[in-house]
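Quick one, probably user error.
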C-alpha cells in the first residue's frame, strides 16, 4: 500500500484542504498519516477525522522583534530532527504540505530523505513558510493565475483549492427546515467569520430593515457575536458557527457575502454562488485577502467592496449590483479551469509517488 504524509497547520485554512483530499486518497489506496504541531488546531481536526497524527516542535520566523525569535530557531531544529525520525520510521512515498510553519521542518526533512514533496499555496503571493519550502518541492500548487508569476515555471501548477465534497451536496429543503426561512424570497448568506468580523457584522445589521424587504438573511457572525435583540426578526437568522448544516445553507443561498480568505472564496467558486467579497484591510493583515478578492473580480467571479469603502449605502448598492448581474458571475465561474482541484492534485501526488 502506498503511503502519504499530509502536513500543515496554524489555522483551519492549513488543514481543511488536506481533509478534502482524504476521501480521494483513500479511494486510491493510500495509507494516510499527518504531521502537525503538538497542540495546534490541526491536531483536533485531524484526530477527529480518524487519521494517525504525529506532533512535532514548531516555531515561527517573525519579521518583527520578539523574545521568541531567540528560542524559536531551536524549536524548528528540534522539529526537523523529529520529522526526520518520523519519516525514517514511516517511509512515505510522498508528502503533501498545505503550509504553515509546522510544515517547514517536514518538507526539509523530506528533501534530505529524497521523498517527493508537493506543496499548496492558497494566497496570491506565497507566505514565508511556503517560500522556504519551494526549493524542496517537486510541484507547487496554487489558486490564482497571478500566483504563477511568483513561482518557478517548472514547478507551478494552477489547481485551485481542494473542496470538501459534502459542501457540494447540500439540500435546499433541509436548509429551509433548519433555518425556518421560506422559499418566497431570495436568501443572502453572510459569512462574517471570526477574526475581523465586527465591521461586516455591524454593516449587515445596520441595513437589515432595507434588506429584509426583498431578501432573507442567514448570518454566520462568529463566536460571541450574536445579537439577542434581533432574535425574533422575521427573515433573519443568526448563528455563531455552523458545521454539519453548512452544506444546506450554501445550497439554499442565492448570494454570499464573505471575507476573502483563499479557502472560503474557492468554496464559493466551486458552489457557483454569486458573491460580494469584503476583504480584510491591509492594516489588519498582510494584504493577501485584498489581492485574492481582486483576482476573483478580474476573472468575473465576484464583486469587491473594500473595507475602507464599507458604508451602509455602499453595501446596499453592491448587493443590488450582484443580484442584478448574478448570471454573469455564474457564467464566469462555470468557465473556470480550477473547479476540480482534487483530481488535479491527486494526479500530481500519484505521479510523485510512482516516480
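Nope, works fine. Designed sequence:
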Amino acid at each position: 500500500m502506498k503511503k502519504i504524509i499530509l502536513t500543515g497547520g496554524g489555522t483551519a485554512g492549513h488543514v481543511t484542504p488536506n481533509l478534502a483530499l482524504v476521501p480521494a486518497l483513500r479511494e486510491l489506496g493510500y495509507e494516510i498519516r499527518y504531521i502537525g504541531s503538538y497542540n495546534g488546531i490541526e491536531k483536533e481536526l485531524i484526530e477527529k477525522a480518524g487519521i494517525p497524527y504525529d506532533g512535532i516542535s514548531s516555531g515561527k520566523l517573525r519579521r518583527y522583534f520578539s523574545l521568541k525569535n531567540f528560542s524559536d530557531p531551536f524549536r524548528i531544529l528540534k522539529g526537523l530532527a523529529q520529522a526526520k525520525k518520523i519519516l525514517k520510521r514511516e517511509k512515505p512515498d510522498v508528502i503533501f504540505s498545505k503550509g504553515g510553519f509546522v510544515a517547514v521542518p517536514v518538507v526539509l526533512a523530506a528533501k534530505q530523505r529524497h521523498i517527493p514533496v508537493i506543496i499548496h499555496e492558497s494566497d496570491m503571493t506565497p507566505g514565508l513558510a511556503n517560500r522556504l519550502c519551494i526549493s524542496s518541492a517537486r510541484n507547487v500548487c496554487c489558486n490564482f493565475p497571478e500566483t504563477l508569476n511568483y513561482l518557478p515555471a517548472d514547478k507551478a501548477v494552477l489547481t485551485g483549492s481542494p473542496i470538501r465534497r459534502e459542501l457540494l451536496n447540500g439540500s435546499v429543503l433541509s436548509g429551509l427546515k433548519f433555518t425556518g426561512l421560506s422559499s418566497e424570497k431570495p436568501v443572502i448568506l453572510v459569512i462574517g467569520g471570526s477574526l475581523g468580523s465586527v465591521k461586516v457584522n455591524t454593516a449587515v445589521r445596520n441595513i437589515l430593515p432595507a434588506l429584509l424587504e426583498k431578501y432573507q438573511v442567514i448570518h454566520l457572525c462568529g463566536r460571541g457575536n450574536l445579537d439577542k435583540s434581533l432574535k425574533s426578526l422575521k427573515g433573519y437568522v443568526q448563528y455563531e458557527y455552523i458545521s454539519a448544516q453548512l452544506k444546506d445553507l450554501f445550497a439554499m443561498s442565492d448570494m454570499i457575502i464573505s471575507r476573502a480568505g483563499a479557502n472560503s472564496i474557492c468554496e464559493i467558486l466551486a458552489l457557483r454562488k454569486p458573491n460580494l467579497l469584503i476583504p480584510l484591510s491591509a492594516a489588519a493583515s498582510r494584504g493577501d485577502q485584498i489581492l485574492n478578492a481582486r483576482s476573483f473580480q478580474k476573472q468575473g467571479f465576484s464583486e469587491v467592496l473594500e473595507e475602507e469603502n464599507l458604508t451602509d449605502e455602499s453595501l446596499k448598492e453592491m448587493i443590488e449590483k450582484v443580484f442584478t448581474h448574478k448570471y454573469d458571475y455564474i457564467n464566469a465561474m462555470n468557465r473556470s479551469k480550477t473547479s476540480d482541484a482534487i483530481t488535479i492534485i491527486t494526479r500530481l501526488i500519484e505521479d510523485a509517488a510512482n516516480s
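The first strand starts at residue 3 and ends at 7.
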